[in-house]
Amino acid sequence: MTALDPIGLEILANALRSITDETFAALMKSAYSTNIKERHDHSTAIMDARGRLIAQAEQSLPIHIASMSGLMECLLARYGDDIEEGDIVIANDPHTAGGTHLPDINMAAPVFVEGRIVAWVCNIAHHADVGGMAPGSMAGGMSEIYQEGLRVPVVKLFHRGELQRELFDLVLLNVRLPNERRGDYFAQVAACNLGVRRMAETIEAYGADTVLAAFEDMLARTAGRMADAIRAIPDGTYRFEDVMDDDGIDTSDIPIVLTVEKKGGRASFDFSGTAPQVPGNINVTMNATVAAVTYTLKALLDPEVPNNQAVIDCVEISAPRGSLLNAVFPAPVAARAHTCQRIIDVVFGALAPAVPDRAPAAGNGANTTAVFSGIDPRTGEGYLYLETLGGGAGGWPGGHGKDGVQVGITNTSNLPVEAIETEYPLMVERYGLLEGSGGKGRFRGGRGLYRVVRPVGHDCLFNGAGERFSNAPWGLAGGEPGGRGRFALLDGSGAETPLEIKPSGVIVHEGEGLRVETPGAGGHGSPS
Amino acid sequence: MNRPEGGSWIVGVDVGGTFTDFSAVNDRTGETHVFKRPSTPDDPSRAILDGLREMAGACGIALDEVSRLAHGTTVATNALLQGRGGRVALVTTEGFRDLLEIGRQVRPHMYDFRRSFPAPPVPPERRFELAERMDAAGEPVRAPAEADIAAAVEAVRASGAEACAVCFLFAYLNGAHERALADALRAALPELHVSLSSEVQPEFREFERFSTTTVNAALQSVMDRYLGRLEEGLSAVAPRASLGINQSSGGLMSVARARNFPVRTALSGPAAGVVGAVHAARSAGFGDLVTLDMGGTSADMALIRGGEADIAYERAVAGFPIRLPQIDIATIGAGGGSIAWFDRDGLMKVGPQSAGADPGPACYGHGNTEPTVTDANLLLGRLSPRGLLDGGMRLDEGKARAAFEPVAARLGLSVERTAEGVLDIVAANMIRAIRTVSVERGHDPRGYVLAAFGGAGPLHARDVAAGIGMREILVPPAPGIVCAEGLLVSDLRETFTRSERIAVSRKAFPRIAAILEELEEQARLWFAGEPDAEGRRTEVSLDMRHVGQNFELAVALPERLDDLTDRFLDAHEFAYGFRNPEDPVEIVNLRLTAKARLYRAPQAELPPADGLPAPREHRLVRFAGRAFAETPVYDRAGLGAGSRIAGPAVIEQLDATAIVHPGDTTAVDTYGNLTIRIAA
After folding, report:
1. Residue A403 to residue A300: CA distance in whole angstroms
2. What is the pLDDT of chain B when averaged over all its residues?
């Protein structure tokens, strides 16, 4: 075994990034669904034999980090040594398999070199449907995870390279558009197989022991780098509180409370005081809370730090068991992204006094979701179109907040209007930036988006999920709050009927339209 | 075509940031000349016109015998980078004036919220809407009213714009509404440049099409002025020369086309180099290549299969997405001037920061004290202290050592081992980039030849090739001037595209045939306007996918349409590793590329070698894992055809240095190409 110096480590790290990027591209290109192909709602990574994250594709989504390490933890507990070459393990369940919500299908495959597992390759893709009560498996109004879709525990989809057909048939029978799902599963499998091949080549070239030692070295270096960044924050206790609008069922104004204790190179993030888990689907499992806090620290302290386990482990993060941010069975969690976005705002808010030169005001703090579904009158077949819309990004001391972008843990692109109208019997009537929705400030908050969609030649169903529709994104340092979002039904004359914050099963008749407005963001600094 | 007795001259001229390069060939005798002079960035045409005169004098070329000037220009690219585009207005479909600003609703960096994309080239106050609409089948839903068109024209006039981009939804299927507005704009404002999305890039996906069209509009006035000056000057200097402008797809277009579609030149810089390298490789008998064009600040890499470059369709220039056919090139910040540094976690990085040409590497002695790639090459003896341009600029080894010492001390390694590490990292960065254009596209590059050029390419080629598992390296005769040579041998090229979704079945064959006939007709008209071109040919490629996919694969038109689905499935299996014959397949775009060869001169042959010349010197060179060893240095000009050299050896020429590592061998072919074979 040779220990790699900082030159050799850089070259190995480069090779690992190359593998995660190649598998990311392979998954994207061979997937069937728009959500993956066009919106890149997927991630790929390399883990070590103990399930620690070693490298992640550059375009991976931060929320997926947590699912991958969650899956690995459950997988190792479930199977121990009972893993063979050619196995591919899948899972999605947030309560038993480390997931964060059911539509994210997790996959992991072991990399065997000379008869032992040296690493794992993982990927996650957000499937446009995983069954359950409502098309898209993301709708609000449900109170148990069973209603949200098919729960897949840690199971082997492939055993020694053989597809487990009975299992796969069971899975596909329980989801809408099984052909599209099959294509997405196979795209994930192809990415796993490619990753295993590439990793095995790399490990053989270096020798397994050298690679394992390098993994340790990389993690230690990243840990040191994060500790340095944390040490630079003034010691002290920092608190912040924000409020979620509602859970889509019966609970409104749900507090998230954070206390940060910072001393030397260590910091703890304690969410005690946060509301208990709620009946609606905005609950977050602990892994997703960790992902959101980790994201914020990296964004605030060191955006270029390599994404590995040491970033995840750099601070202590805790939330009361059974609370909104550490939800337990049978909490529904489909819309956990909204809450993760709010966690990010809360961490920014808490640390703003500590790093006043960098922290931004509140962003749109949401993952505004619009799902249209129905029967396409052109083909007689069912369709389902899911999109999450961006909004404003918070102003920060150095620049205006960006307009109409994804913020926080998500950075998925929109679907082109021409793709929407070509693929679905829908017409997009307007799509623009919402004037006045950016909070005033020395550095203005970003503006939200609006979009008007009409069904063509049929009646369609709309399910939506908004946040910051009642609690506006706050400003910082004298900056003003940004605008709130809303959903509204438009009748033939253009008259509007406001909808709930998380509407489900709304029929949009032919001739009517649906208007989505997403929140803006808070401004930074006094406007004058 | 009427050619003078003594033949006529074809000249390629490539304008770079520092130098303007010329390459001239006589189309009867095959006589060639190369020439270099400093660029004149304030008006690049001056260096071209002055350079032509200077070259004519130096090389004995009669300028009235120059029949064609093939020109690669960075005027458009620089205008974008420096934000010097013209004043543009946009007219778009009602309800979508912000679309250009929203883009794909993403931020440029997942974690760094401080970074932003550049603002679109049209500010909000010059973005206007027109009440009109096409549907997804290309059928008009609402035709624009005369009064609304008139109001839009007035708004554009009042905005004071020099150019107007007209960008309507679904115009790629039906451009009638765009044309209606364009007619009114041209009638009312004859000085206005107009760019239509249905002409600039008639393809699916509105943001990329609108962005490309708007950038085109921003460049129209800039390019128009530049080409006007160049044509005027050229009519005096070389009155018989017709001008061809290089485009990003690696072919030439007429001046008229370049005026209408200047955005096509925005990515043309590296394209000429690829064409030149392909040409050199063809003469050496190689068709499957990876090109490596490495200069002072960046390296461009492309994959060539069967003598043809892969074509990509999307890339950003200065942050603006541009979707157009372009050679699929990966560019990274790796060059001779790239600086070595330590990241916060102590890992060593090289680039993308570069010391550039000024102040340049530490060994230039112009004030930079940070260690660069060129300094590393000097410290290892790979580069001569006599420096580039053969003694024209000496390199200071002491300054290079001084720059490396602190870095080596921090690593606890020797200066030499550190310098090797810097070269290893820069090679790893290039290897990763090559993987993005090869394995990430489904091609295994291991059987390919690495064509290395640019000032620094031949120095690093061996590390890159070996790291990928390639066995052969090709160094063209004049590595520093491959771009200008590429211009000389570039085809005239034009791509005609029809964007239409067609489900592939026997029922659809008549429709496919009808579209192809229309595209052929467009090509015939285009050929008619290019009377000098020979060897006319067309190629058809179809962008295909499974229904429901949103990512297309280019499939060459098979002889029998019955084979179309199979060809697509083959391509899909190749690229993605699986095949789903039961899933329906559709066509999204049909592209017909028309190519025509300009007269191509016979290639000059090198006289056979009269034995191996004596080395010009021996110097100490260090190779991986070895001590410094006395290594022979040959002057490439003295190597005749058939010369063979076993490594270790250094082969120097005016603007490049090639390294033959221990165990490797190299041979010079009839056309002066150097082929290095890596020891197994």
Report:
1. 20
2. 90
